[in-house]
Amino acid sequence: MEFKVTHRCSTSGARRGQFTTPHGRFETPVFMPVGTQGTVKALSPNDLEQALVSVLLANTYHLYLRPGHGLIERLGGLHHFMSWNGSILTDSGGYQVYSLSKLRKISEQGVTFQSHLDGSTHFIGPREAMEIQRALGADLIMAFDECAPYPANYDYVRNSVRLTSQWARICLECHHSDSQTLFGIVQGGMFSELREKSAREIVSMGFEGYALGGLSVGEDRATRQQIVHETVPFLPAAKPRYLMGVGKPEDILDGVTAGIDMFDCVLPTRNARNGALFTTHGPLAIKNACYAEDDRPVDEHCSCYTCTHFSRAYLRHLFMAKELLAYRLNTIHNLHYYIGFMTDIRQSIREDRFVEFRQAFLEQSGS
Amino acid sequence: MEFKVTHRCSTSGARRGQFTTPHGRFETPVFMPVGTQGTVKALSPNDLEQALVSVLLANTYHLYLRPGHGLIERLGGLHHFMSWNGSILTDSGGYQVYSLSKLRKISEQGVTFQSHLDGSTHFIGPREAMEIQRALGADLIMAFDECAPYPANYDYVRNSVRLTSQWARICLECHHSDSQTLFGIVQGGMFSELREKSAREIVSMGFEGYALGGLSVGEDRATRQQIVHETVPFLPAAKPRYLMGVGKPEDILDGVTAGIDMFDCVLPTRNARNGALFTTHGPLAIKNACYAEDDRPVDEHCSCYTCTHFSRAYLRHLFMAKELLAYRLNTIHNLHYYIGFMTDIRQSIREDRFVEFRQAFLEQSGS
Questions:
Q1: Which chain B residue has its CA at the smallest distance from A317's CA?
Q2: Distance between CA B347 and CA A7 in Å, rounded?
Q3: In this structure, are residues B257 and B12 in contact, taking their beta carbons and an 8 Å threshold?
Q4: Number of CB atoms found within 10 A of residue B27's CB
Q5: Are A249 and A181 in contact (CB under 8 A)?
Q6: Is residue A89 within 8 Å of A57, Cβ to Cβ?
Q7: Element spanning A346, H or E
Q8: Which of A40, A255, B264, B294 has the fewest beta carbons closer than 10 A?
Q9: Residue B233 in contact with residue B199, Cβ under 8 Å?
């Protein structure tokens, strides 16, 4: 793995970088679409390539439960299993254990929980998370953390920071692969003091990359922005920074402003399946009656397969008729929008006009 | 439109032909996948091109109800609406009116029925069916017929044959387009005498192509085979012959043997969505546990995108997890299978070994 910062914005924390993994090179800031169950919903690897996706995220929790990390390892690892030759990042499972599973019980060793699929009981701690991620074989892997709910009180979050550091140490001890890059995760909820404490502890352990976890869990944009801006200065400038689960285009601009390099979010893909499309002029709800006879593409400035072949009228028809093609065409468009948005951000950083780009974007989209 | 028979089998009724429409040329015998609502379920036009599909079927009944033929005409016709540059055949709506709608009432003028979507009342007769199909703008269109249920008694079917002939005359009178080829439909249920009567009447009117309707409605394979074999001799040898709604590979072989040129069926696409895959060694139910760790493609002899990129294990995982990609990958495979099957049939006819091909196919697949 190699990460290097190639440009820095002169008037904000924004930076441009280059990340090299065993499965290729990609430029940062980067957006990683979410392929929860080993597939970015509604898309094939070929669709992802055509959307110029270079790295995607898969969920350890889901793949552990079904089809199982052992099965995926025996079949040659996640890249081979899903026929994806680009880079993959797996999360640690920590967030899903808290948000999806039932009856979770946290101990010093890890978390016992019931599967959301069949109610069966499972245990994942830092050792298990590392073993599952080793078997899956992603290029970028995450330390197992304790993601505090929102809102959470100071004492809860202080303990969550303590556990996260304790588990991070174990993850580092278990990590022996040169082909997988391990990120540490900073927790600390909405408490600046605990964020600083967590960042200092995690950074002191010497990870190859750093993530901010426990955000985009219900807090408002200003709070999130403040926490990110306060925390990033504690992270080493030479290492990649990943803001987990974020987010809307305006949230990504906030993150880039603070010096974040990597983002992931279900928003473009989930919204697509709900008929909510991103355009350069703001959101478009394809089911609206006003599009019934609209022969224009979703976005006249867009060069995706959907916009170059189909009208809003046809996409509305597919969506109203619940045709499977609707979900794919909408997802192709939204992902193309996000990937293009990141390309524009990177270009604006290289040309040292990121702050102007951000301003113009927020005005045009009404964010 | 131009249709010519290019080869005839020396030991069966099988024949090879070439059909030219305003949207290209295709070889017969041909299989037309079903794109009920203006989309072959789960596939994009690009997927269809890659599967070498040259002509597809769309349903007049469905498109009339939603989004409406007027809307599609205003948006440039069905080809433009769905972004499909190949040929299209629309059925007359007759079959769906009987099989899907509620409270249908047949008169001498046509059928009054309630929409399966919202219960609203509609009327379609021969004039309406022709007007809807004119607006949709398919290359091949069908006369409006009365499709008898199965089983139906002699008197019911005799009246159905009478109405079908009466309506066929009106369809011919209403048909003024050079860019659309109108097929007449032969009815007559499972009564040889009524099939002959219907065929004589319809053929005497001088259509550009002839279809056998009212089959694949529940009768057994031997009955269907007999009816087709008895009826085809009454159809002119120089015109294309279309066996509507058929069928399984063995049914297609039966039809080709009798001299049928065109087929359509939901089987490959519907089965795909249910996880039932066609292979050269017979059907494969992808959900079966024996495929959980099976790294082989669905069919080792298949060159489709699915078989060249994904294992049975991955396809099973997608299917069990109800991932949208499952339906598309399965459909790509099944359609590739059907299109390849038709290519093999045509080649065997050209090389005058169709009967041997049929025999070998039925033995290998266990039909």
A1: B67
A2: 61
A3: yes
A4: 18
A5: no
A6: yes
A7: helix A324-350
A8: B294
A9: no
Nearest CA distance, A67 vs chain B (angstrom): 6
pLDDT in tens, B214-250: 999 999 999 999 999 999 999 999 999 999 999 999 9
B327 at A interface, C-beta within 8 A = yes
> What are the residue ranges of helices labelled H in chain B?
45-50, 60-65, 69-74, 78-82, 94-99, 126-136, 154-174, 192-204, 221-231, 249-258, 267-273, 305-309, 312-320, 324-350, 354-365
Backbone angles phi, psi at B209, to 5 degrees: -160, 160
Q: Is the Cβ pair B75, A44 closer than 8 Å?
A: no
Please tell me the distance from the alpha carbon of residue A273 to that of residue A42, in angstroms, as a whole number.
9
Helix (H, G, I), strand (E, B) or coil at A124: strand
pTM of the model: 0.97
Inter-chain touch A320–B67, beta carbons under 8 Å:
yes
Phi-psi region of B191 (alpha: psi -120 to 50; beta: other; left: phi over 0): beta
Q: How far is A232 from chain B (nearest CA, A)?
A: 37
Query: Which DSSP category does B234 fall into?
Result: G
A117 touches chain B (CB under 8 A): no
A239-247: average pLDDT: 96
Contacts of A323 in chain B (CB under 8 A): 37, 39, 41
Determine the distance in angstroms separating the CA of B230 from the nearest CA of chain A, rounded to an integer: 39
**Residue A365 and residue A249 in contact, taking contact as beta carbons nearer than 8 Å:** yes
pLDDT digits (tens, 9 = 90+) for A46-92: 999 999 999 999 999 999 999 999 999 999 999 999 999 999 999 99
The ipTM value here is 0.97
Is B264 one of the annotated active-site residues of the chain?
yes
What tokens appear for A229 in the block? 């801006």
Active site residue A264: yes
Interface size, chain A vs chain B, as Cβ–Cβ contacts under 8 Å: 106
Of chain A residues 275-304, which have a CB less than 8 A from chain B?
A: 292-293, 295
